[in-house]
Specification:
The protein is an alpha/beta fold and 444 residues long. The protein has a 12-stranded mixed beta sheet with strand order 4-5-3-6-7-8-9-10-14-13-12-11, sandwiched between helices. The chain has a 4-stranded mixed beta sheet with strand order 19-18-17-20, covered by helices on one side. Helix 5 crosses helix 8 and helix 10 crosses helix 11.
Length: 444
């Protein structure tokens, strides 16, 4: 049902609150198999029954792409290591060759943490239910049960530029990390204390900024938080310890991406990122695409998904790097490879007119604007508070410049003046790396 109703999500978000509350409560009361479909329970069963079944899932996916995906047809691949490593550029250049639109697809895109937007397809009735089932299972390891109260401080734009909003679906109090500042923090603290959540879900940078504002205010939070769920960004050790100490709570922090090929997360007993084998197949490769098996050697994260027949990715270079941990057996019961360290996801901020900090994950990486499918590269530069230069390289198509700028400025309540420049190319570093943000303001 969720995928069938997905095109109505914007309409639902803009409903008057009383109607939205009633609709959300009714939706919450529906049985799980009706809300999320058959694959939700199938995936949970896979987790519970998983016993060295990864090879079967991998072999099935390999057989499928050889028979159904044009990019791989006509090649005799005997095992996963025979497949070429692919990346965003290869997929863009051969987009239709990776598609099997005979199956039901959901077109989506991401801003791209590398500064290169990326468009692809998920599978209707599979990709989203799988994600829901997986995170219900993962969060449950930290004591969360569906329906528990959650404080959400992420990059979601709220209807009518609200500062906060109660969301009946999921029993969440959502705080806009775009609009929170020194002036309104006291009212935010009051509403949070009244809601009394037991769990927090946020971007690390947004939560850190939130703590800064609370500590500057005379009024304090009166909460007993069981666990904090942090995703979508890297997390520095000092920030993690600060958040953990402030809320006196365990932190669940994970690595994943919009393409939904790999998920790795810490547990109640270890801060290493367990690579969950029932989610996808993960390899670490060196610069020559040789497989790395030893711990403490940095390599690129290459992943293969099991559950997308519309646009399946085999040996997809995520653009991120990591190192394996020495541990292959944990007190939580996990057996297998874990990441000790994940590289390439440092967080940056832009600053609004009132000097409010906004993370790039919230401003760009977490957005899903249609314009991203027409953009090849983006670069941001900030030289003054409340002003931002955005350079974009188009993919040959035009975009509504004013409309795109309006969407971005609306997401931060018009607290940012944007100068959009269409350019032929964006200068890279001497080592060929793309600089996403040139921040010339002093970081605070």
């Amino acid at each position: 049902m969720e995928d069938k109703l997905y095109h109505l999500l914007t309409l639902y978000k803009n409903l008057p609150f009383p109607i939205k509350f009633i609709v959300g409560k009714i939706y919450n009361s529906l049985p799980t198999n009706i809300k999320y479909g058959r694959f939700y329970n199938l995936y949970l069963k896979r987790i519970n029954d998983f016993n060295k079944r990864q090879n079967v899932l991998l072999e099935n996916q390999i057989s499928y792409v050889i028979e159904n995906i044009p990019y791989y047809k006509g090649n005799e691949y005997k095992s996963i290591i025979d497949f070429p490593v692919i990346n965003k550029n290869i997929i863009r250049e051969n987009f239709n060759q990776f598609l099997n639109l005979k199956n039901n697809g959901i077109k989506t895109n991401t801003g791209g943490s590398s500064g290169t937007p990326f468009e692809f397809y998920l599978e209707k009735g599979v990709s989203r239910p799988k994600e829901k089932a997986h995170f219900d299972w993962y969060w449950n390891q930290f004591g969360y049960n569906s329906g528990n109260k959650i404080l959400m401080i992420r990059g979601e734009s709220l209807a009518n530029d609200k500062l906060y909003e109660y969301q009946a679906i999921g029993n969440k109090l959502a705080i806009s990390c775009y609009h929170i500042n020194k002036i309104n923090i006291e009212s935010v603290i009051n509403i949070i204390n009244k809601f009394n959540p037991k769990f927090i879900h946020g971007y690390p940078s947004a939560l850190k900024n939130f703590i800064d504002l609370v500590e500057e205010n005379s009024k304090s939070l009166e909460l007993e938080i069981k666990a904090i769920f942090l995703g979508s960004e890297g997390l520095f050790y000092k920030d993690k310890e600060r958040i953990k100490k402030y809320f006196n709570s365990k932190i669940a922090h994970w690595y994943g991406h919009s393409e939904r090929l790999v998920h790795a997360g810490n547990c109640m007993y270890s801060d290493d990122f367990h690579i969950f084998p029932f989610y996808g197949y993960v390899e670490l490769l060196d610069d020559e695409n040789n497989v790395i098996t030893e711990p403490n050697i940095k390599g690129k994260i290459v992943a293969t998904g099991f559950d997308n027949t519309v646009m399946p990715f085999i040996r997809y270079d995520t653009g991120d790097e990591a190192e394996y941990s020495e541990m292959n057996k944990c007190n939580c019961g996990f057996i297998g490879n874990s990441f000790k360290k994940i590289h390439g996801r440092n967080q940056d901020y832009i600053y609004l007119i009132d000097r409010t900090k906004v993370s790039l994950t919230a401003f760009v990486f977490g957005q899903h604007f249609d314009e991203f499918s027409k953009i090849n590269q983006i670069q941001l530069e900030q030289n003054e508070y409340g002003k931002l230069i955005i350079r974009i390289v188009l993919r040959g198509e035009t975009i509504n410049n004013k409309g795109f700028v309006k969407k971005l400025t609306d997401s931060v309540n018009a607290q940012l003046e944007i100068e959009l420049k269409i350019v032929e190319n964006i200068k890279k570093t001497k080592r060929g790396k793309h600089i996403f943000l040139i921040q010339n303001l002093k970081k605070t």
